[in-house]
Every structure is written in structure tokens, then in C-alpha cells.
Amino acid sequence: MARSDQNTYTICPLDNGPTEVADGSLSGQRQATPTPSHKIRRKILIAVLLAECLLTVLLLPSDFVISKRWAIFVHAGGSNNPPPPQTWSHALSDPPLGSAFPQLGNSERPVMGDPGECRGFLVVPVGNCSSCLKVDLQAWSKSSSEIGLKLVLVSTGIDEQVRVFQREHKIDSPIVRDPRGEITKKLNAFWTGRPYLFGRNGKLAWISMTPLDAQFPANDATFRQAMEKLR
């Protein structure tokens, strides 16, 4: 209270702090106004964040592990039979797409043979055990020819095993001899019968990720996409 000259008292309103108004804001409270320095710092932080995002996008493709996992993820989305989890770890050792077909030793001679009129090669490592192979090679050879591919087999068997293999399966597809398993290892054929698509230039265009699928890969979306890119 405040006393006046007329011996009367005047009641002064109490300051109860800011009060809430209808729009939800507080009256009686000073609003902070951004200063020019705050605006500059905000712009710098935004620029740094955008630069980090750009660098991440540019560097990710050069990271082999990340790019390989992304390729497997894309393949899983386009495949009728997504790869089982254990395939993901094995596939990290796959040769990169665009790499040349492995050569034996220091030889520069193409081991897949002359492509002729075909669009490319469907390479299938068969190991040295025909009984372990679930693939119908006769049907695969025919299906390969129908879409302009040449079926090429890679065998780690000795001469006699190869002859028996050809006789049992009644196939005339070319067989690449790989007695020491060099090509099989470089291809990362971690299951017998895993198919690989190579172009006429001998460059890798597609790798199967479905070890439980013994069907010809023509129905695989990623295989069809790779075929469309072959020249």
C-alpha cells in the first residue's frame, strides 16, 4: 500500500509475473530477439550439416563393405527368393560387378571361349561332384541359348571326372578346367551351382544370391535388369 497526502491509502496491484493470454503466449514476458550474430551462427551450422550429408553420399559408394551390403539389400528386394541371413556375410567376399573373369595363373587367354553371336556367358561352377549339383544343366543350357547366353561350366575335377560328368549330364557346354580351384575361389562360389552372368567383354554383370534356388534365374528381377544392360 501507498499512503497519500489526504491520509488515505491506495492499493497497488501486485506483480504476479507473466500471465497466459488466449493465444497461449505469456504476457509481461520479454521475447528474445535473434541478434545478427545468432543468425550467422545458425547459417554456419546449417551449412556444415549439409556439407557432412554431401560428403556421406559421395563417400558411401567407395566403401566396399557398405556398397556390397547395399547391393545385397537391393538384390533381396528384387529376388523372388530373398537370400538367407548367412548369405549376406559370405557375399561380402564376392568379386565386384564389372570385374573381369578370373584367369588361370598369368595367362591372358580368355578361358570362356569366343562369345560368337551370344550376348554373354552364364558361368556355373560345378566343383568336382556331379551328385551334389541340383541344377538341371541340360535345361539351363537350352534356356541360356534361348535368351542369347552361352552356358559355361567351371570344374575342379580331374580329366576322368570331367568326362564322367559330361557323359552323365549329356551336355556339350564348354567346361573351364580349374584343378586348383583358383577360379572358383576368386568367384567366391561358396555353393556348388552358383550362377554368374558375364557380358561379351568378360565383365561380371550379375551374381546369384539365392543358394536354395535351383531354378534358371530368368525370373529373377535383378538378373533381368542385368540382361537388359548387356550389349
Task: Provide tags for this entry.
231 residues; two-stranded antiparallel sheet; elongated; alpha/beta; 35% helix; five-stranded mixed β-sheet; 7 helices
Task: Describe the structure concisely for a colleague.
By secondary structure, the protein is α/β, with parallel strands linked by helices.
What kind of oligomer do you see? single chain
Which stretches of 5+ consecutive residues score pLDDT under 50? Answer: 73-79
The main pleated sheet reads as:
5 strands, mixed
Approximately what portion of the residues adopt beta-strand conformation? 5-15%
Task: Tell me the strand order in the biggest sheet.
Answer: 7-6-5-8-9
**Count of DSSP E strands?**
9
Mean pLDDT metric: 75
What is the global morphology? elongated
Radius of gyration: 34 Å
**Class from helix and strand fractions:** alpha/beta
Structure in words:
The chain is an alpha/beta fold and 231 residues long. The protein contains 7 helices and 9 strands. The chain has helices at residues 36-59, 64-78, 85-91, 137-146, 159-169, 182-187, 221-229, and strands at residues 2-3, 9-10, 19-20, 26-27, 120-127, 149-155, 175-177, 196-199, 204-207. The protein is elongated.
